[in-house]
Design goal:
This protein has about 325 residues and is α+β, with helices and mostly antiparallel strands.
C-alpha cells in the first residue's frame, strides 16, 4: 500500500481513521513507500516491487539496483547483537545500549517497510514482531523502533514506557513522528529511530514530561517545523504475554490552542494520570528465575481473567472430604489448577 504524499517523518494526514491505524510513517525521503504485508522471508512479488520502487526513487535509477543485484562480492553487513547487561549496569546505561542497538539496525531507506505494525494488535502479537526484528536485523523506521524499544525494556520493571507522538507542519504539509517515552527514578527520556539525531534518543535526565516535550519542540524548531499536536499514551504493560492493546492516544494536546503554560499543565496532568494507573496495575509476569519459586504468573489488568481453581461437578448432596492438614502446612498450600 502506498500513498502519494510528500514529507519528513510520517505522512500527510488524510483523515483521522488512517491515523488511528498507525499508518503515519509511510514515506521515505519525501516519496511514498510500500509495506511488506507478506511476512519474512519476503515473497518474490514484494521483492521485485521493492527493486522497481528503488529504481524510481533513487537518483541513479535502475543502475543502483543492477549494481547491487548483479554483484557477487558485496561486503558483509555486520549484524548487531541484542544488548546484554551485567547486574551492576545502571538503567541509563541500559537505555543507551538499547538505543545503540536500534541505531545500529539503521534507518530503512529501501522504500519498503519490512515489518507490518498494526496499532490495534494486542501487546503479545506486537512482541512477537519485535522478536522477529531481533532475528532478522533489518533496517527499521520510527514505529517499528517503538515496538522494539518496548520489547527490549520489558525486563526492566522500574522503567515505565509510553508512546509519544508528534504532528508538525512545514511548507504546507503535516508530518508525523513517534518515539517511546521512558520514565524512571523521577526522570524522563526517550528511545526511537529517526533520520535526525535530535528526534530519537533522549537521555534519562528530564525532570518532567513537559521538559522532555519542550526539548523535542526545540529540535523541530531547528528544522523549521512547527509543532501542532502532541499525543501521549498510557504506560505499557511489562507482561509480554498480555492481550491488552497499547493505549496510543490517551491525551491529545493541540499546541496551537494552548499557551506554553497551559501545555505544561496538561502534560503534568497526563504524567499524574500515568502514575495513578501504574499504582493500580497488577505486577507483570514473573521472570523465568522467579517462576521456579511461584505458582501461576499474575495477569495484567487487560489480560483474560482466570479462575484460581477448577471446581469439579458432583452429584447433588455429595461432599468432597479433605484430608486434615496441620495449620502450619496451610501457608504453603496451593490450589491445583
Amino acid at each position: 500500500m502506498i500513498r502519494s504524499v510528500v514529507g519528513f517523518e510520517g505522512v500527510e494526514e488524510r483523515d483521522e481513521e488512517q491515523e488511528e491505524e498507525g499508518e503515519e510513517d509511510l514515506r521515505d525521503g519525501g516519496v511514498p513507500f510500500f509495506v511488506n504485508r507478506g511476512g519474512l522471508p519476503v515473497d518474490e512479488e514484494t521483492w521485485e516491487r521493492m527493486w522497481r520502487h528503488v529504481a524510481r526513487i533513487h537518483p541513479n535509477g535502475e543502475d543502483i539496483g543492477k549494481g547491487i543485484r548483479g554483484c557477487n562480492d558485496l561486503p558483509k553487513i555486520p549484524i548487531p547483537s541484542v544488548p546484554t547487561y551485567q547486574p551492576t549496569t545502571t538503567i541509563p546505561q541500559r537505555l543507551e545500549a538499547i538505543q545503540k542497538y536500534i541505531r545500529d539496525l539503521q534507518y530503512n531507506h529501501t522504500g519498503t517497510q519490512f515489518f507490518e505494525i498494526k496499532k490495534s494488535r494486542p501487546l503479545t502479537a506486537l512482541m512477537d514482531i519485535a522478536k522477529e526484528m531481533t532475528r532478522e536485523s533489518l533496517p527499521i523506521k520510527c514505529l517499528e523502533a517503538v515496538i522494539l524499544g518496548i520489547y527490549l525494556t520489558n525486563s526492566m520493571p522500574g522503567v515505565e514506557r509510553f508512546p509519544l507522538s508528534f504532528k508538525t507542519h512545514f511548507s504546507g504539509n503535516h508530518f508525523y513522528h513517534i518515539v517511546l517515552g521512558v520514565h524512571c527514578g523521577g526522570r524522563f527520556g526517550a528511545l526511537g529511530m529517526s533520520r535526525r539525531d535530535d528526534l530519537m534518543f533522549k537521555p534519562l535526565e528530564f525532570r518532567s514530561l513537559a521538559d522532555l516535550v519542550q526539548d523535542f519542540q526545540g529540535a523541530y524548531r531547528g528544522l523549521w517545523h512547527s509543532l501542532r499536536k502532541v499525543k501521549l499514551g498510557q504506560y505499557v504493560s511489562h507482561d509480554p504475554h498480555s492481550v491488552e492493546q497499547i493505549e496510543w492516544k490517551h491525551s491529545i494536546l493541540d499546541v496551537d490552542k494552548l499557551s506554553p503554560e497551559e501545555l505544561r499543565r496538561e502534560l503534568e496532568r497526563h504524567a499524574r494520570d500515568m502514575r495513578l494507573k501504574i499504582g493500580k496495575a497488577v505486577p507483570p509476569s514473573p521472570t523465568k528465575d522467579r517462576k521456579k519459586d511461584m505458582g501461576s504468573p499474575l495477569r495484567g489488568p487487560g489480560s483474560p481473567m482466570r479462575r484460581n481453581s477448577r471446581v469439579e461437578r458432583r452429584p447433588s448432596g455429595e461432599k468432597k472430604v479433605l484430608d486434615p492438614k496441620p495449620s502450619s502446612d496451610m501457608n504453603g498450600y496451593q490450589i491445583r489448577v
